[in-house]
Amino acid sequence: MNDTSGHDVDRFLIQQIRQGDSDAWAKLIERYEGRLLAYTDSRIRNRATSEDIVQEAFVGFLVSLPNYDGARPLESYLFSICAYKLTDHLRREGRRPALQLHARGSDDASRAIEPVGSARVASSIVRSVERKRIEEQAVRQAIEEQIARWKESGNFVKLKVLELLFVTGMPNKQVAETTGTTEQQVANYKSDFLLRIKSIVKRQDLDDSVFPELTGDESGSA
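The chain above was modelled as a monomer; its predicted structure follows.
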């Protein structure tokens, strides 16, 4: 794709995002996330932190979207925001940022990257991003809690079954053959695990809007 068509794609995606198109937002993230991660990884070499910084950069872009006029290349703009977020992270850690902020031809990383402004569409997508983060944290906490319980009780067969199911993606039949269990046992372990995770998530006192599908459903065991 040449540079001109690339700018055309960016302009089209931004137009759709301003109209509330969540698919366009997902496509924009897919288009630039890898490049931004490579940039932050090369500076801090911590993937989890890099992912957080890049996510903050995308949210920052949404916040500033009402003031983005398109005259500046989107790639340059995103890299400037990402550099700003990275520098902020390093300062919070007490590290002196020894890096070039003018990444990818950005011309004003120190300028007000996130000007004050609000738009209903941008705010809606920001809330969606934040909700996704809360969902991920809640489920991660629930999984860690349940795994710890099974380790304490010595349920290592269950743990192995679940690892093969959810980490490697094996089908039930292959998991049963690998672990010396039956397909029915595998299905039972999977169902039990999902019910327990659901129950633990519900006990976290999250707002109903985070997991609306759990509201009013008391099934599941502890």
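DSSP finds eight helices and no strands in the chain.
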